[in-house]
């Protein structure tokens, strides 16, 4: 394993997670085994290789599960939706949801939308491709 590369990598909290110019989530792919990660990793979580490359993740995916949250948080007024989305790249992201109809059934085709305002809360969310 090439874990020493991780010592010189940008700390996880400082790595770009969103490419605002492209309006997409920014991840990484292992050149050796093809594993995709979000956020980006300097070392592959599957095979330990340091041979990773930057990748703009797909904005299309499938909602695997979701819940409605009724507890207020700073910047978030309840109720709001949180869910897990399996992107077509093979990575799962946890995100806020918008426009989900009452009683939506999963799996559900969704799109990841990035807010161009870098100060927005949340900075990205999922929404259904079509209303059910």
Explain the overall architecture.
The structure is a single chain. By secondary structure, the protein is mainly β. It is 4% helix and 39% strand. It contains one helix and nine strands. It has one helix at residues 4-8, and strands at 18-19, 24-30, 36-37, 52-56, 60-69, 80-87, 92-97, 108-114, 124-128. The strands form two sheets. The chain has a five-stranded mixed beta barrel. Strands 1, 2, 3 and 4 form a four-stranded antiparallel sheet that branches. The radius of gyration is 16 Å and the shape is globular. The N and C termini lie far apart (47 Å). The relative contact order is 0.19. The mean pLDDT is 90.
Give a concise summary.
The chain is 4% helix and 39% strand.
Describe this protein with a few key phrases.
single chain; 132 residues; mainly beta; five-stranded mixed barrel; four-stranded antiparallel β-sheet; 1 helix; 9 strands; 39% strand
Q: Approximately how much helix is present in the residues?
A: under 10%
Strand order of the largest sheet: 5-6-7-9-8
Reading the helices and strands in chain order gives HEEEEEEEEE
Distance between the termini: 47 Å
Number of helices: 1
The whole-angstrom Rg is: 16 Å
What's the main sheet like?
5 strands, mixed, barrel
What topology does this entry show?
Blueprint: H1 4-8, E1 18-19, E2 24-30, E3 36-37, E4 52-56, E5 60-69, E6 80-87, E7 92-97, E8 108-114, E9 124-128
Parallel strand pairs: 7-9
Antiparallel strand pairs: 1-2, 2-3, 2-4, 5-6, 5-8, 6-7, 8-9
